[in-house]
Structures are given as structure tokens and as C-alpha cells.
């Protein structure tokens, strides 16, 4: 049956393009790496070229770049205050990287970088690593106050502190799994519905007529996925801002 | 047929996927365990992390050093320009307001001046009319006086003549009635008493 050939998982396969093996580690340049390069290239080129005229009255593309810049800037200022602006390049890079990676992944036959847990986990670990390193650098052991909420009775602290620690430790996991799972699920669903179109079409005229419904679904899902791509990049950036706020102001 | 061509397109990557396993085993790298879900395949982790670090690191540096100063600069320049323009507009508005106020003041002054000029002209015209009237009145009075004088002299003459006529008539009547002549002075006295 046709369904055998429509494998929704196939799109997540890693293919080695240039095999590299150093010290027993497989560090090959894969399709994933290719699309990371593509993501960075597309995002950089867009931001660079759209602002190259430096117009006082921006054109369409320059407006998009400025909107992205001000959007992230306001997001960071709202949640972490003006002190947080030193992390603006990090948050802006994360937002643009995730957004462009998500959007690029929507093109047929394109690999979705953010649909691999290790990539999203790498980004989440970067965020949490920054929070921990900066937190201890700025506040020393005072950063541990993050786990001790003010105004809680001592007896309750026995319960609250472990909960706070667990919640802190689960942050990188929730941050990475949220993005990964959204992208993975979206792409599998898209693939399945597109597969229905192909499978049904194989059954002749009736099948072609019947395939209109999954086709419409696939179109609608594509629109939804564009929204999800943006939304997940936004959520990732917002949560990054909030975690960075903890590093700046540990006592809450 | 349309359907088969679409199907062929879909089938192409599946074939490619089939050969992919073969190329992997031929390069000598440990092949993927069959059935592992690709995103959870630890064999791909080192490579993905390395390339993520390289690409994201470069991206971060590029944004921090090139893109963000540029976009930030554009926005700052625009904000400065807007503030400047607003200040300029406020200044121009102030000037316009001042001009309007000066104009209104001048208008008010001109109005009062026009009023005084009108008043003066009015007064002058009135005074002139008054003097003219007075002159005419005086002339009329003089003429009236002359006329009255003439009338009274004419009247006096007439009265004088009336007296002589009356005396003559009286002497004639006396002569006719009495037959004697009355003295002139008596008649004159009698006429005078009657005429009174």
C-alpha cells in the first residue's frame, strides 16, 4: 500500500553530507548542519541586506527587521528591565535563529533543525547556563536566594525549596521539549495529511475527489504551522527573558 | 496522468532514504540502529551540537557586532530626528501664535485709531456746521432787525401820516358839523388821545 512509502518520520532522518570523525566522535557535516548554516545565512542576510540602505523612512523589509529588533527589545525590557538589555544580543539571536529555523523547516523537503531535541536542548542549555553563570558571577551565593522565596515560614521552606530547585532544573527540559515537540508534532501531522492526499489519489477518480479534504487540511495546517513557528520562537524568547530576569534579580 | 506524476515525486525521497542506509554503512561509521526515532538517536548528538555551536556562535557574533548596532543606530537616528522635528514644529507654532497675537494687537490699535479719527472728523464737522449755522443765524437776525427797523419806520411814517389825515378829516368834520374852525392844536390833541 502507498502508506508504506509515506513515512512521516523520514523527514527527521539525519543524512551525512561530509563525514567527519574526530577522536571517535562522529562530527559529520549533516543535513541538519546544512540547515543550521542555511538558517544563519538566511537570517543574517535578511537582517543585513534589509537594513543596508539605513533609510530614515523604512521600506517594507527594513520595517520587518526593525520590528523584530524592537519586538525582542521590548520583550526583554518588560520582563528583565533595562539591566537585562546586556543580554539583548543573546535573546535576539535566539529568537531569530529559532524563528528562521522553524519557518525554513516548513518548505517541502527542507530539514527542520528545531525538530531535533538535541538542538533545542543545546539552545535551552545555553540559556540556563547563562542564567547560572551570570547569577553566581553577579550575586555570588546570593543567587541561591532564588530557591528561597521571601515571606515563607521556615517550616514551609523545607517543602518549598526542593520544589523551587526541581522547577529550576526542569526549565531547560521544558524549554527544549516545548519547542521540539511542537515542531515535531506539526511536521508529522502535515506529513500524514499530505500522505493521505497521495494515498487517496492512487484509488482513481473517487480517491482524487476524496483527497480534497486532507488537501484542505494540509493547507490549513501549513497556515497553523506558520503561526506555531512564530509563536514557539516568541515563547522561547519570552521564557529566556524571564529566566534571565531571575539571574538579574534572584530574590523574588 | 496527473496523479501518477505526483505520486512519483513523493516516492523519490523514499527511494533516496533507502539508499541512505547503504551509504552510511559503506562509510564505516556505525549505522543507525534500525527503528530508532531519528531525533532521539544519540549517535547524531555530537555532530549536531558541534554545528549548532559553530553556526549559532557565528550568528550571535554577527548580530552583536554588525546587525544590532546598525538597526539600533537607525532607530536612534529616527527617534532623534522625530524629537528634533517635534521641537522645530513647537517652535514654529510658538512663532505663529506670536504673529497672530501681534496681528490682533495691531488690529485693535488700528480700530481705536479709526474710531478716534472718525470721532474727530465727526466733531469737526459738527463744529463747522455749528459755526455756519450761527453765522447764518446772525445774518438772518441782522436782516430781521433791519427789516423790523424798516417796518417800524414805515409804520411810524404811516402813523404820522395817519395823524395828519385824521387831523384833516377831523377839522373837516368839525367844520362841516359845527361850522367853525377848531384850532389845529386841539384837534391834534384829540386825535392823539383817540389814537392811543
TrEMBL record, chain A:
Transmembrane stretches, start-end: 33-51, 87-111, 117-136, 148-169, 200-220, 226-244
Compartment list: Cell membrane; Membrane
GO MF annotation, one: proton-transporting ATP synthase activity, rotational mechanism
Keywords: ATP synthesis, Cell membrane, CF(0), Hydrogen ion transport, Ion transport, Membrane, Transmembrane, Transmembrane helix, Transport
Record has Kinase as a keyword: no
Domain of life assignment: Bacteria
Tagged with keyword Cell membrane: yes
Principal subcellular localization: membrane
InterPro entries per the UniProt record, alphabetical: ATP_synth_F0_asu, ATP_synth_F0_asu_AS, ATP_synth_F0_asu_bact/mt, F0_ATP_A_sf
Membrane topology value: Multi-pass membrane protein
PANTHER family, per the entry: ATP SYNTHASE SUBUNIT A (PTHR11410:SF0)
Entries under NCBIfam families matching the protein: ATP_synt_6_or_A, PRK05815.2-4
Protein name (database record): ATP synthase subunit a
Biological source species: Mesorhizobium metallidurans STM 2683
Gene name for this UniProt entry: atpB
Automatic annotation (TrEMBL), chain B:
HAMAP family documented for this protein: ATP_synth_b_bprime
Membrane topology (UniProt): Single-pass membrane protein
Quaternary structure and partners: F-type ATPases have 2 components, F(1) - the catalytic core - and F(0) - the membrane proton channel. F(1) has five subunits: alpha(3), beta(3), gamma(1), delta(1), epsilon(1). F(0) has three main subunits: a(1), b(2) and c(10-14). The alpha and beta chains form an alternating ring which encloses part of the gamma chain. F(1) is attached to F(0) by a central stalk formed by the gamma and epsilon chains, while a peripheral stalk is formed by the delta and b chains.
Segments forming a coiled coil: 93-146
Species for this entry: Mesorhizobium metallidurans STM 2683
Protein name as annotated: ATP synthase subunit b
Name of one Pfam family that matches: ATP-synt_B
GO CC, any one term: plasma membrane
Keywords, alphabetical: ATP synthesis, Cell membrane, CF(0), Coiled coil, Hydrogen ion transport, Ion transport, Membrane, Transmembrane, Transmembrane helix, Transport
Record has Aminoacyl-tRNA synthetase as a keyword: no
Protein family (similarity comment): Belongs to the ATPase B chain family.
Compartment list: Cell inner membrane; Cell membrane
Annotated function: Component of the F(0) channel, it forms part of the peripheral stalk, linking F(1) to F(0). The b'-subunit is a diverged and duplicated form of b found in plants and photosynthetic bacteria. F(1)F(0) ATP synthase produces ATP from ADP in the presence of a proton or sodium gradient. F-type ATPases consist of two structural domains, F(1) containing the extramembraneous catalytic core and F(0) containing the membrane proton channel, linked together by a central stalk and a peripheral stalk. During catalysis, ATP synthesis in the catalytic domain of F(1) is coupled via a rotary mechanism of the central stalk subunits to proton translocation.
Amino acid at each position: 500500500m502507498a502508506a508504506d512509502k509515506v513515512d512521516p518520520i523520514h523527514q527527521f532522518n539525519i543524512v551525512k553530507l561530509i563525514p567527519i570523525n574526530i577522536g571517535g566522535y562522529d562530527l559529520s557535516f549533516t543535513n541538519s548542519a546544512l540547515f543550521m548554516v542555511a538558517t544563519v545565512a538566511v537570517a543574517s542576510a535578511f537582517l543585513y541586506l534589509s537594513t543596508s540602505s539605513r533609510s530614515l523612512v523604512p521600506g517594507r523589509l527594513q520595517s520587518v527587521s526593525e520590528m523584530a529588533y524592537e519586538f525582542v527589545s521590548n520583550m526583554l525590557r518588560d520582563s528583565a528591565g533595562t539591566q537585562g538589555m546586556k543580554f539583548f544580543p543573546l535573546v535576539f539571536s535566539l529568537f531569530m535563529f529559532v524563528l528562521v529555523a522553524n519557518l525554513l523547516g516548513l518548505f517541502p523537503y527542507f530539514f527542520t533543525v528545531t525538530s531535533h531535541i538535541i538542538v533545542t536542548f543545546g539552545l535551552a542549555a545555553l540559556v540556563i547556563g547563562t542564567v547560572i553563570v551570570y547569577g553566581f558571577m553577579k550575586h555570588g551565593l546570593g543567587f541561591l536566594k532564588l530557591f528561597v522565596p521571601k515571606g515563607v515560614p521556615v517550616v514551609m521552606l523545607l517543602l518549598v525549596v526542593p520544589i523551587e530547585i526541581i522547577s529550576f532544573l526542569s526549565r531547560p527540559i521544558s524549554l527544549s521539549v516545548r519547542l521540539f515537540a511542537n515542531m515535531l508534532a506539526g511536521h508529522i501531522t502535515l506529513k500524514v495529511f499530505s500522505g493521505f492526499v497521495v494515498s487517496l489519489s492512487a484509488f482513481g477518480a473517487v480517491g482524487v475527489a476524496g483527497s480534497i479534504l486532507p488537501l484542505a487540511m494540509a493547507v490549513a495546517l501549513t497556515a497553523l504551522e506558520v503561526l506555531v513557528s512564530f509563536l514557539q520562537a516568541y515563547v522561547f524568547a519570552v521564557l529566556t527573558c524571564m529566566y534571565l530576569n531571575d539571574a538579574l534579580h534572584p530574590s523574588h | 496522468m496527473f496523479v501518477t506524476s505526483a505520486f512519483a515525486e513523493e516516492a523519490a525521497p523514499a527511494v533516496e532514504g533507502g539508499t541512505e542506509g547503504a551509504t552510511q554503512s559503506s562509510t564505516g561509521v556505525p549505522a543507525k540502529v534500525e527503528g530508532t526515532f531519528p531525533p532521539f538517536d544519540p549517535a547524531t548528538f555530537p555532530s549536531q551540537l558541534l554545528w549548532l555551536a559553530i553556526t549559532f556562535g557565528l550568528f550571535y557574533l554577527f548580530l552583536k557586532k554588525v546587525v544590532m548596532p546598525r538597526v539600533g543606530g537607525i532607530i536612534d537616528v529616527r527617534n532623534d530626528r522625530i524629537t528634533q522635528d517635534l521641537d522645530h514644529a513647537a517652535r514654529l507654532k510658538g512663532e505663529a501664535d506670536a504673529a497672530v497675537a501681534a496681528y490682533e494687537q495691531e488690529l485693535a490699535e488700528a480700530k481705536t485709531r479709526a474710531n478716534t479719527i472718525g470721532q474727530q472728523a465727526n466733531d469737526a464737522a459738527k463744529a463747522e456746521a455749528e459755526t455756519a449755522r450761527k453765522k447764518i443765524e446772525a445774518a438772518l437776525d441782522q436782516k430781521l432787525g433791519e427789516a423790523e427797523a424798516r417796518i417800524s419806520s414805515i409804520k411810524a411814517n404811516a402813523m404820522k401820516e395817519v395823524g395828519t389825515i385824521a387831523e384833516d378829516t377831523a377839522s373837516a368834520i368839525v367844520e362841516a358839523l359845527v361850522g367853525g374852525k377848531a384850532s389845529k392844536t386841539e384837534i391834534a390833541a384829540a386825535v392823539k388821545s383817540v389814537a392811543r
